[in-house]
Amino acid sequence: IVRNGMTGATGNIYCGLHEYADMAFVLHLLRADDEFVDVGANVGTYTILASGVCGARTLAIEPDPLTIRDLNANVTANRLQNLVETAQTAVGTGSGTIQFTKGLDTINKVAPAGSDNVQSVPITSLDDLLANRAPTLIKMDVEGYETEVLLGAVKTLGNPSLVAIEIETADPQGIAILEQAGFTRAGYDPVKKVLIDPSQSTGSNALFVRNRAAIIARLNAAPVRTYRGQNI
Q: Sorting pLDDT into bands at 50, 70 and 90, what band is 103?
């Protein structure tokens, strides 16, 4: 369900998949009964791919009350209520409340001190949210707050079920956290369905992988998806 101004969602109308390599990786990696975690889900573009196409279970996390209304509408429109759980919260290092921007669509974020036009939203850690879950893939798009999310995800990163993370912003501290948990940077070629050198990647997000053998086996056995009249 798309309106003018929904940057990511309208990008899919114009481009098919507005983050082609990143989204193709989701489509090729995930299987039914896998668990996908969409941190900063916005209106659910990745969530709909993971659950609506792949059949994975999804926890879609979005703090903005207006945006999560649209997210829930997209889940309902795609009849995915049995596969998708939504959580209206920000994610960081601990629990409480935090100031969050509003009215900025896909670039809403944890508000810097002194910001105008903000709202209070709940915040919790990824470890608390995922205490009884076994995610296969996490996608994280929180407008520069990714390292704070990783700092609150030590147990999650140690879960052997987790083989890949797609993350919008990867600063040196965040990279160090991921590397300590055994992840390495990779790129993805969605046509050949292979991991490639990250310097050759066309993805919008940084991809970090662990247990490459398991990932490669999944990619090799991935179902064929039809994208803009072509099989990928």
A: low
How far the first Cα of the chain sits from its last, in Å, is: 25
Residues 6+ apart with CB under 8 A from 38: 44, 46, 47, 50, 58, 59, 60, 61, 139
Retrieve residue 126's tokens.
Answer: 């990824």
In degrees and rounded to multiples of 5, residue 51 shows phi and psi of: -95, -40
Q: For 111, which DSSP code?
A: P
Q: DSSP secondary-structure letter at 110?
A: B
Is the pTM higher than 0.85? The answer reads: yes
What residues form DSSP beta bridges with 122? 97
Pair 24, 1: CB distance under 8 Å: no
Number of separate helices (H) and strands (E) present in the chain? 9, 13
